[in-house]
Design goal:
Elements lengths: L9 E8 L9 H10 L3 E9 L11 H13 L4 E4 L5 H11 L2 E3 L1 H12 L3 H16 L25 H36 L4 E6 L5 H9 L16 E7 L3 E7 L9 H6 L1 H8 L3 E7 L5 H14 L7 E6 L10 E4 L5 E5 L8 H13 L2 E8 L4 H9 L3 E6 L5 E8 H7 L2
Parallel strand pairs: 1-2, 1-3, 3-4, 5-7, 5-8, 8-9, 9-11
Antiparallel strand pairs: 6-7, 10-11, 12-14, 13-14
């Protein structure tokens, strides 16, 4: 049912420059996306337009050029670095005599190839079905008639209506499964809050090095590769930080410019690990020529998931690729942490990073007296395991009087 290209197809890439900048995309990133999907790039066609054409997105002359190039290189697929309407896709396919896929379809294809967990596969399938529902008419116009014939005569529902209904039913089923998965994830988050263990989430543009840093800090073996969207499924591990104690570290999916809205919605359950974190480590590729634009894009996605107010630590990664840089913890005029320079692949700057995280999470360490009834012995044991208890006394009623020292954010969780 899902119209997804297989790997190894010969493709023609189409990239249009818009002087206004609102629809501008990055050509190098586009090529990396195509290669990440397994495409064999046979040709790249570029052009400039002030506004998209209603029929082909590009002008009729450029559309004919795309047709001629696609035929000359024997391409099976034309990929646009922009979002096309269903009508534009149909018109291009009719003219070029090859399949057409837009930027959203390309990213969906990569996600479909990379999803590993059950929840991740469901999230990708949900996004694909929502995308497909708007394009179901493509290639199905011959089915815009009532079914007939022996064994097919029935209530008068057209085949196209049947397929739309099947997609709607499938979407409902997937959303129901995802809702159960989110409930389980929420239970896990509540348990971590009761245990007063802070959560730190790694965020950043795709291929910034988040998973490499995650493996370096946790000793895990999360899949890493120098390609876009190497990680889709969230992974959580417990790490002991100096002067701070245990921390839950979460590796998350990378962000990208103009991330399809359906994907943001589909991965909302996964991204809740970000929106519920106590601290975000924003990993940035220090050598990226589009560094500032990518930082802005990450900020935009964080605002979409209501995570813009969470404290953030900026980490410049891959300093090993720039000889003039060395591991460093940059501070502001008031001594606050501004950024940390590291190399996750070589393990440079890890001590500085852990120091910065400890300061960010523990900068508001407060002492407070807790009075716990005997039935709260489990919480008492957790506080001792957390090494947060400074002193203890037991009154005549058997209540525990604990003097604890905890970050303010963790202490507040105890009273929620």
């Amino acid at each position: 049912m899902i119209d997804r290209p297989s790997g190894g197809e010969r493709v023609v890439l189409v990239h249009i420059h818009f002087p206004t900048g609102k629809m501008e995309e990055d050509l190098n990133e586009f090529k990396e996306l195509a290669e990440a999907a397994g495409a064999e790039v046979a040709a790249i066609i570029t052009g400039t337009r002030r506004v998209p054409d209603a029929k082909y997105f590009v002008g009729s002359g450029k559309a004919e050029e795309i047709r001629d190039v696609a035929q000359s290189v024997n391409a099976q697929l034309v990929i646009f670095n922009h979002v096309l309407t269903p009508a534009q896709e149909r018109n291009i396919e009719s003219l070029v005599k090859a399949r057409a896929v837009d930027r959203t379809g390309l990213i969906l294809d990569i996600f479909a190839q990379r999803a590993r967990s059950f929840e991740g596969k469901l999230q990708v399938e949900l996004a694909q079905l929502k995308h497909l529902a708007t394009r179901l008419v493509r290639g199905w116009t011959h089915l815009e008639r009532q079914r007939g014939g022996i064994g097919l005569r029935g209530p008068g529902e057209t085949q196209l209506e049947t397929d739309r209904r099947l997609i709607r039913d499938k979407i409902k089923m997937i959303m129901s499964r995802l809702a159960k998965s989110r409930q389980q994830r929420e239970l896990g988050r509540r348990a971590r809050k009761r245990a007063t263990i802070p959560t730190v989430a790694l965020v950043g543009y795709t291929n910034a090095g988040k998973s490499t840093l995650f493996n370096r800090l946790t000793g895990a073996s999360v899949y890493t590769a120098n390609q876009l969207f190497a990680t889709l499924d969230p992974t959580l591990r417990r790490v002991d930080f100096p002067k701070l104690g245990p921390v839950i570290l979460a590796d998350t999916v990378g962000f990208i410019r103009h991330l399809p809205h359906d994907l943001v919605q589909a991965f909302h359950g996964t991204l809740e690990e970000v929106s519920s974190a106590d601290l975000l480590i924003h990993v940035v590729d220090v050598g990226d020529t589009q560094r500032e634009a990518h930082i802005e894009q990450v900020d935009h996605v964080l605002s979409e998931i209501n995570a813009q107010e969470i404290p953030r630590l900026v980490v410049f990664n891959k300093i090993d690729l720039i000889p003039t840089l060395s591991p460093k913890l940059d501070r502001g005029d008031q001594g606050e942490v501004k950024r940390v320079l590291i190399s996750a692949s070589l393990g440079l700057g890890m001590a500085e990073l852990m120091q910065a995280v400890s300061e960010e999470l523990g900068q508001e360490m407060v002492e407070h007296e807790l009075i716990l009834p005997p039935q709260e012995s489990k919480l008492r044991a957790l506080l001792y395991a957390r090494k947060a208890v400074l002193s203890e006394a037991i009154d005549e009623e058997g209540k525990y009087h604990l003097l604890v020292r905890l970050p303010r954010v963790e202490l507040e969780k105890l009273f929620r």
